[in-house]
Design brief:
This protein is mostly beta strands and 436 residues long. It has two helices and 31 strands. 2% of the residues lie in helices and 29% in strands.
């Protein structure tokens, strides 16, 4: 059907400008190239558009047929003949999946040297934090070491931090949608903005959104699959619903950038989101941290400012400083707690029927009991002992092998009592350890 009217503002049959639309293959630069010298086989590739112009009307291509005709002006008999081939343009209904059904609760860390790399700054508390044997949001080493304080001021471990490093949970979300397998060869990406603020010209956030919910409250952590990595903040939604697609809220949300295909042609794309202790809805029983990681907005360091400029909301153009866009309500703090629900939402712009669709997956944050097991009940002196620590709370990243210090484990015998790691006093006992 010939076009008698334009569908788009910047159409051209001679070339395309950025953001413009081509009205023919020649304008897009399409050409047929011989695969090898003397082969007589010519190939060309082009990207099928999501919309085409038919009689002045923009029509979605999903569900249409595409046909190619070739006119051979001289076949083997010397006559002119036309040959053709066709295929259907079909969409796929996408899905999204988290790598776990249950995630451990993240925990923080102490910052011995002052502001610069941890949630709890001991220097701002007159040493009280350092003297405590436990602290909400911190994972201490065995009480044989930390019972007199998380950072001892006397004895042989003066100044040592007797806690684990920050337990940041790394979430892997995968989108299965072959509609984004566009490249003729090589790796594909999801790099499309679908959540926008104010107008279609400000499309910055990708089709995957992460949020943590607790009862009737939730926070929007970030999006993924946008055209580029974009700094922003965590948003307190004050409800369990995501903002409308054209809400101005999206202007303040960070984006992880394009989602990479796990292997060429797989049609499965992955995004990785780190979740820290502070990243959940506000609660009165959440730990009161002194520092917030502001790498979410492009600044690779911790800050004492919870929000931009430490104010009640910053300005629309302010994406520096702080981790949250608005401060926690009075008397409460932001944190991830046991029982919180992580939800990932994928906005499919064109499913199998050509319509938009939203699909989700969810997981919970939970604390599990650790178990210490030995391979035998009776050992001969000089024989090997195999100890196994089963602790799902340390499985922070499903795609990486975790390592924890042996000072979490206490050895208790008639000859010696103390932890098995390098921080314990081994004057009475020495362990030859093989970590498998």
């Amino acid at each position: 059907m010939p076009n008698k009217a334009a569908c788009f503002a910047t159409e051209s049959n001679t070339g395309t400008v950025p953001g413009g639309f081509a009205t023919s293959l020649s304008a897009s630069g399409f050409s047929l190239v011989e695969t090898a010298a003397g082969s007589g086989i010519f190939t060309g590739t082009f990207e099928v558009p999501d919309h085409v112009c038919q009689a002045g009307t923009s029509v979605i291509t999903n569900g249409l047929n595409i046909k190619v005709n070739y006119v051979d002006f001289r076949d083997e008999s010397g006559k002119s003949v036309e040959v053709s081939d066709n295929a259907g343009i079909r969409g796929n209904t996408g899905s999204v999946k988290l790598d776990k059904a249950v995630y451990p609760v993240p925990f923080g860390a102490l910052n011995v040297a002052g502001l610069g790399g941890a949630n709890f700054d001991t220097s701002s508390d007159s040493g009280n934090i350092a003297k405590d044997a436990s602290l909400n949001g911190i994972f201490p080493l065995h009480r044989d070491l930390s019972g007199s304080g998380l950072i001892p001021s006397t004895g042989g471990l003066v100044g040592q931090q007797l806690t684990l490093p920050a337990g940041t949970v790394l979430v892997h979300a995968r989108v299965n949608d072959p509609d984004y397998t566009l490249a003729a060869s090589g790796t594909n990406f999801i790099a499309s903005g679908v959540w926008y603020a104010n107008s279609h010209t400000n499309v910055n956030n990708g089709p995957v959104a992460f949020q943590i919910t607790r009862q009737g409250q939730s926070v929007l952590l970030a999006t993924a699959g946008g055209p580029a990595i974009r700094g922003g903040h965590i948003i307190n939604l004050n409800s369990t619903q995501l903002p409308a697609q054209n809400s101005t809220v999206w202007a303040h949300v960070s984006d992880l950038g394009p989602m990479t295909e796990i292997s060429p042609g797989a049609g499965i794309f992955q995004a990785d989101l780190p979740i820290e202790l502070t990243d959940g809805p506000a609660g009165t029983d959440c730990p009161a941290v002194t520092n917030w990681d502001q790498s979410i907005n492009g600044t690779a360091k911790f800050t004492t400012a919870q929000t931009p400029n430490n104010n009640a909301g910053g300005t629309a153009s302010s994406h520096q400083g702080g981790r949250f866009w608005t401060p926690a309500p009075s008397g409460s703090n932001y944190c991830v707690r046991q029982g919180d629900v992580l939800t990932v939402t994928y906005f499919d712009t064109s499913d199998a029927s050509g319509q938009t669709q939203t699909v989700t997956d969810s997981a919970t944050f939970d604390l599990r009991n650790g178990v210490l097991q030995s391979d035998k009940s009776v050992y001969i002196i000089g024989s090997d002992m195999i100890l196994t620590l089963v602790e799902p709370d340390f499985n922070l990243d499903s795609q990486t092998a975790e390592t924890v210090p042996l000072d979490l484990i206490e050895w208790d015998s008639h000859a010696y009592k103390g932890t098995m790691g390098p921080l314990a006093d081994k004057a009475a006992a020495r362990f030859d350890l093989c970590i498998l």
